[in-house]
């Protein structure tokens, strides 16, 4: 903070320092949402592909429901609606995490299901000819191939999660967007919106662009291996 203040002077050094510090909460929330969403999404994916129509319906209903709801609506329900209805004091961290985990899991489940169903049917038929169980087929044959096709879109969706955290300011989550809006609405000279919002855009770019390059690299390597 002090180094930034010296480099940019006042008030720009203070503003930039606070915006950079706020990025860590955006990154923390994104990682928590991605990890939690991956765990839940993996379970939902299992429900979608297991040879059981009832479990298939539950998995389908979950993805259909939460893909149909905008992330902003989930934030309103969990961060503002539920506390009022239930009379509870839900921390913005908890509400934002729950909303993003639900949102992430629904989309990742569909990405992973698509990668699994993209495996040729002949692979399943060969496993049945070898008398392999469903679990053995998934572990030994299907998943090793599906992972190659799902890594790039999974990383790409992590970018969507990072950008999605910008909506969490609506429930009071202290991230880059909330700190930036506070500065943009302040009367301090040098914190005008036409200065603050481009600065925030640059920070979001530096958080997302390396992931975009990584996803592109992995996709390119996958295409080379399959060609």
Explain the overall architecture.
The model has no long low-confidence stretch (mean pLDDT 87). The longest helix is centred in the first third of the chain and has 38 residues. The radius of gyration is 22 Å and the shape is flat. Helix 1 packs across helix 2, helix 3 crosses helix 5 and helix 8 runs antiparallel to helix 9. The protein starts with a helix and ends with a helix. The protein has nine helices and no strands. It is mainly alpha-helical and 227 residues long. Helix content is 82%, strand content 0%.
Shape category: flat
Number of helices: 9
The N- to C-terminal Cα distance equals: 50 Å
Helix content: over 70%
Largest sheet: none
Q: Roughly how many Å is the radius of gyration?
A: 22 Å
Order of helices and strands: HHHHHHHHH
The chain-level mean pLDDT equals: 87
Tell how many strands the DSSP assignment holds.
0
Structural class by secondary-structure content:
mainly alpha
- Percent strand equals under 5%
Which spans of ≥5 residues are poorly predicted at pLDDT below 50?
Answer: none
């Amino acid at each position: 903070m002090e180094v930034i203040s010296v480099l940019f002077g006042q008030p720009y050094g203070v503003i930039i320092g606070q915006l950079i510090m706020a990025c860590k909460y955006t990154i923390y929330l994104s990682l928590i949402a991605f990890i939690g969403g991956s765990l839940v999404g993996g379970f939902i994916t299992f429900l979608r592909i297991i040879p059981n129509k009832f479990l298939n319906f539950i998995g389908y209903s979950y993805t259909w429901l939460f893909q149909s709801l905008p992330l902003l609506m989930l934030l309103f329900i969990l961060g503002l609606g539920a506390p009022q209805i239930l009379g509870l004091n839900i921390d913005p961290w908890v509400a934002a995490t729950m909303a993003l985990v639900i949102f992430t899991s629904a989309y990742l489940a569909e990405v992973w299901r698509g990668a699994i169903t993209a495996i040729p049917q002949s692979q399943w038929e060969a496993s049945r000819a070898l008398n392999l169980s469903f679990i053995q087929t998934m572990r030994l044959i299907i998943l090793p191939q599906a992972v190659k096709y799902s890594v790039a879109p999974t990383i790409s969706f992590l970018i969507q999660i990072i950008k999605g955290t910008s909506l969490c300011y609506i429930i009071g989550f202290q991230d880059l967007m909330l700190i930036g809006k506070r500065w943009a609405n302040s009367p301090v000279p040098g914190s005008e919106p036409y200065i603050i919002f481009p600065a925030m855009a640059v920070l979001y770019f530096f958080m997302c662009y390396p992931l975009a390059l990584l996803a592109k690299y992995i996709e390119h390597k996958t295409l080379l291996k399959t060609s």
